[in-house]
Amino acid sequence: MTNDREEPLLPAARGPLSSAVVDCLRGAGPPPPYDGIAAAPVYGDDLQLALYLCYELHYRGFAGVPADLEWDPELLRARAALERCFLTALRADAHRHDEVDEAFAGILVEPVDGTGVSHFLRDSGELWHVREYAAQRSLYHLKEADPHAWVLPRLWGRAKAAMAAVEFDEYGGGRADRVHARLFADLMADLGLDTAYGRYLDAACAEQLVTVNLMSLFGLHRSLRGALVGHFAAVEITSSPGSRRLAEAMRRTGAGPAAEHFYDEHVEADAVHEQVVRHEVVAGLLEAEPHLAADVAFGVDATVFAEDRLAGRLLGDWSAGRSSLRTPLSREFTHVS
Asked: What CA–CA distance (Å, rounded) separates 146 from 149?
């Protein structure tokens, strides 16, 4: 298994913005200019990769990139411009509710005839679909709890205590072998995928980058702490039923015991987390800071928006019989028990 402590390699650029950021990280040029950022498609490959690269400096960084670039003023100014475009678009496109209960209402009830990715994988997905899904989602799951941990210093009382308790579970309850990111790496190994952190960045679609950039955006800004809590709540509320379907998909396709275990673990754990997050984290935050209600609702809406866009991309590609990845995996893999 690949050493998961290694810094990932810089990816190939996807346009002028990400090319400028890559050059900047290599010490070969300035960050992208504001005019170019403002003109780029907000949810497109180029802007989203440029933003992802800036954010990644706050996680593992990249091989050969100096760690002190994390706080480089010029790069931070470029990141701020990228963020303004992203956040402005999200507020315009994703915002649906101002009340938290209304935002939760749309995700607390499972549709009778669901058509999402987990439904597809459970009912008719093949092993190659499962492997692609794991490769795409590795950008999220290999850092699953990390951006949420940034909100802890920005909470207090009930909300802080409950958030810390849920995060403790996400980090394995003190056991390294039970950290959820480690369990996802085990899932990837079952599927014959490279478990290295960031390995599938070059392959991931823009829609997947959006889902990861969203939680980094919310996590890194104290002003967006309400949105981060809303994001976390949306993830926990939808995780348990979705994980149940994905566990069934893993069993049906013969993905392997670690693949099954990852989603089985989330069925039980996230059913508990959902109650704690709603009744302690969200309620505790709004008890202390009631003015953040609209931000929490926005966090829920933005999460649903981003995940729906990703689902549309995956299902659109798969229904056409093509790969959802920029660099497709071999479809010839056969799991060996």
From this structure: 5
Give 66's DSSP letter. Answer: -
**At residue 157, what are phi and psi to the nearest 5 degrees?**
65, -140
What global pTM score does this model have? 0.95
Q: List all residues 6 or more positions away from 107 whose beta carbon is below 8 Å from its beta carbon.
A: 234, 237, 238, 300, 304
Q: Give me the helix-helix angle, 73-93 and 206-220, nearest 10°.
A: 110
Cα 147 to Cα 170: distance, rounded to the nearest angstrom: 12
Shortest CA distance to 212 belongs to which of 32, 27, 70, 86?
86
Q: Which of 7, 12, 3 is nearest to 204 (CA)?
A: 12
- Please write down the long-range contacts of 152-156, taking CB distance under 8 Å and 24 or more positions apart: 154/222, 154/225, 155/225, 155/229, 155/281, 155/284, 155/285, 156/288
**Per-residue pLDDT tens listing for the chain (337 residues):** 444 568 999 999 999 999 999 999 999 999 999 999 999 999 999 999 999 999 999 999 999 999 999 999 999 999 999 999 999 999 999 999 999 999 999 898 877 678 899 999 999 999 999 999 999 999 999 998 999 999 999 999 999 999 999 999 999 999 999 999 999 999 999 999 999 999 999 999 999 999 999 999 999 999 999 999 999 999 999 888 999 999 999 999 999 999 999 999 888 776 788 899 999 999 999 999 999 999 999 999 999 999 999 999 999 999 999 999 999 998 877 665 5
Alpha carbon distance 204, 324 (integer Å): 8
Determine contact, residues 297/102, Cβ cutoff 8 Å: yes
Q: Which residues contact 180 (CB under 8 A, 6 or more apart)?
A: 141, 144, 145, 170, 171, 172, 262, 265, 266
Residue with tokens 């056969």: 334
**Contact in structure between 141 and 204 (CB atoms under 8 Å):** no
